[in-house]
Design a protein that fits this description.
Keywords: Signal
InterPro entries: CalX-like_sf
CATH architecture: Sandwich
Helix content: 10-25%
Signal peptide: 1-21
Strand order of the largest sheet: 2-9-7-4-5
Strand content: 35-45%
CATH topology: Immunoglobulin-like
Protein name: Calx-beta domain-containing protein
Structural class: mainly beta
Number of helices: 2
CATH superfamily: CalX-beta domain
Shape: elongated
Largest sheet: 5 strands, mixed
Number of domains: 1
Distance between the termini: 100 Å
Number of strands: 9
Radius of gyration: 25 Å
Order of helices and strands: HEHEEEEEEEE
CATH class: Mainly Beta
Length: 160
Amino acid sequence: MKKIFSLLTLALVLVFSSCIEQNYPLWEGALVEFQDAVVRTPAAGQTYPRITVANTVGSVSLQVNLVAAQRSVDETITYTVVAEGTTAVSGTDYTTSGTLVIPANSSFGTLTVTIPDTGAIGGSVDLLLQLEGNSSIQPSENYKRVQLRITRPNPPAEGA
């Protein structure tokens, strides 16, 4: 009798617990983030990754992710050059527009930085970019920055 009672109690618990409606909260925000910031390890002592590129590369394309439902219209996202992490000179070491577009019905946009060939002058310069978003899409706090380290080959040795 105890076994039957135990099985009946277990059956009732399973029947009544399976009918409980679960109302899980849904996040409905919208963020943008650098793909490289998500998949690369931050540079030593920094909260963002550093990507090394040669000054002969021509241009660098950085993927920007939309973390939200896709939009039915193009979204223009702004970004800035952060002075504290930048030693590169605009117009000399790089050019960039300050905006990028995430096309309608897409989850990705491309930020393009043009890197002119400054020749064999040696050393390197850094360019720190930060996503700012727009009025309806904010930057992800953890993945809003990426730094480009632009390397320049050393000049040929004299007499060589």
